[in-house]
Amino acid sequence: MIHEIKICNIGSFQEEATLSLIATDYGKKLGGVIVREGFSPILNSCVIYGANSSGKTQFIRALYDFQSQLRGNRSWEGSQNLQRLYNPFKFNSSTIKQPSKIEIRFDYNSIEYCYKVEYDSNAYKSEALEKHVSNRWELVFDRIHLSNQKHVVVLQDSSKKEILVPPYVLGLSVILMSEVEEVRGVAKYLAYMQICNGYNWNMMGLLWGEVQRWLGNELEKKRRKEQIRNFLNAVDVRQEGIEFPVSGDASFDKIVFQHNQFNEKTGVNNPVKLNIMDESNGSKWLLLLGAKVIETIENGYTLFVDELDACFHPQVTLALIGLFKNKKVNRNNAQLILTTHNVNLMDEKELRRDQVWFIQKNSNGKSELFSLADFTDVDENTPFANWYMANRFGATPNIDGLEKVFFANQE
Description:
Blueprint: E1 2-8, E2 17-20, E3 33-34, E4 42-43, E5 45-49, H1 56-70, H2 81-85, E6 100-108, E7 111-119, E8 124-133, E9 136-147, E10 150-155, E11 162-165, H3 171-175, H4 181-191, E12 194-197, H5 202-215, H6 218-234, E13 241-243, E14 256-263, E15 268-275, H7 281-299, E16 302-306, H8 314-325, E17 335-339, E18 356-361, E19 367-371, H9 384-389
Helix pairs in contact: 5-7, 6-7
């Protein structure tokens, strides 16, 4: 499970921003908390709000781009890949050439780990993995620069194994293919974080590729296809069946929905097929997201979604959050982290205050990330949405003089 994520000098985040999934003052509302022996209570979901262009997408994108490196995405291969990944804060001369940083704290196989990486456009400057054992942090591996063109990842176990890596290749991605069981398992955990965007149409093909791999062989596909069909019906996307393309590399537009067509003369429903591209945008995204939700919950992954409800009714989004809160369903402690503009989700009856986060950009273009739990005058009975819309928490758009647009050229 994810405990904490930090990013620094990435996009609009000049200074360190920390998203903590460690629950605060828990006790009143246990529905949003996972309690396990040996660990702090961890939130199973959180919702991030903010105005347009505040940095919400950038936070999710930083993780997506990192994961593309970790998975060894072919489109990112070569010495130029870090120039694509490196995106420092550009509105301050002191940071434009400084390294970017990502830090992720999580637990895997009942052990807490902390992974840290720093990079610029030329090389990974540092990289390390630590684990928490006997109330102290122990180094699992770190990255050593032998020269500008030669780095090694050194394992700190009894083997002291050294793995040679180019300066522009993530050491963790090499470990992902290694035979060292512990660090390979940790690398796989981070590689299997589920990250998607609710309105980026360029991502549809990428997500469909991931869903195709998840569908698996014919035996698995039969069960999982029925799961997706049931998911769609449960969220009121009515259909009588789904036909996925037989070919493993077939494009998303080859999916077909089956519906009933009523014949007025005979009074009988006849089956009719409709290509998915003729379905609504919400139906398209709910199919992909449904597969991701099922995979995430069954495997205990963490799902990040930017603009989850861009195409959905807010009741659908609340129902999805409810799945992650449902201990009978979410038996493997999966997590959901989403960004949204939908104030209807900010319901004090459904969310704890530490599950609500905000991103706000200041006049210098810097984004800051903070929690509703940071406000001392807010308790679990505060009307979260009303106070937010009254701008008592910030992170709302500053709309002023919109009518001037229509009179700007008049004397």
